[in-house]
Amino acid sequence: MDELSLFNYVALTALAIFFAGVLIITFVVILCTMCKEADERLERRAAAPSPPPPPLQLDVVLPYFPYAGRGDGSASEAAACAICLGSLRQGQLCSEVPACRHALHKDCLGMWAKTKGSCPLCRAKIGVQGSDGVV
């Protein structure tokens, strides 16, 4: 082989190695980018908040009665409904939480009990009446 053909052979080999290296590096960069995007999608999916649970729709049947006041005649300490913050007046229909005996407006406590299931003052569980009438 003469000197010129040896040079051409070495130059072609070097050029082939260079392009093979460029192809390998390009492949690695594309692969890393795809893996990074997949990881970001998984992180976004894991970080996305799950939808809140539906509100409790409890069948609560509480007894009610007309409010009769404290009996001591003191108007300075008028009882108030902890839900609507309105005062409990003589003769208004009220209900009480059986577990703690806190008295509240009948309608206020009825709506509260359907979604919360506990007393708004002390968080005592409000009994759910079953089909047999037992709390």
Largest sheet: 3 strands, antiparallel
Distance between the termini: 105 Å
Look at the structure and give the mean pLDDT.
Answer: 81
Q: CATH homologous superfamily name of the largest domain? A: Zinc/RING finger domain, C3HC4 (zinc finger)
Count of helical regions = 2
What assembly state would you assign to the polypeptide chains in this entry? single chain
Radius of gyration: 38 Å
**What would you call the shape?**
rod-shaped
CATH domain topology of the largest domain: Herpes Virus-1
InterPro entries: RING-H2_zinc_finger (IPR053238), Znf_RING (IPR001841), Znf_RING/FYVE/PHD (IPR013083)
Organism: Eleusine coracana subsp. coracana
Keywords: Membrane, Metal-binding, Transmembrane, Transmembrane helix, Zinc, Zinc-finger
GO molecular function, one term: zinc ion binding
Note down, in words, how this protein is organized:
This is RING-type E3 ubiquitin transferase. One of its GO terms (molecular function) is ubiquitin protein ligase activity. The chain has 135 residues and is mainly alpha-helical. It folds into two domains: 1-48; 53-135, Zinc/RING finger domain, C3HC4 (zinc finger) (Herpes Virus-1), CATH 3.30.40. The chain has two helices and three strands, in the order αβββα. It has helices at 3-47, 106-115; strands spanning 64-66, 93-96, 103-105. Strands 1-2-3 form a three-stranded antiparallel β-sheet. The longest helix is centred in the N-terminal third of the chain and has 45 residues, at 3-47.
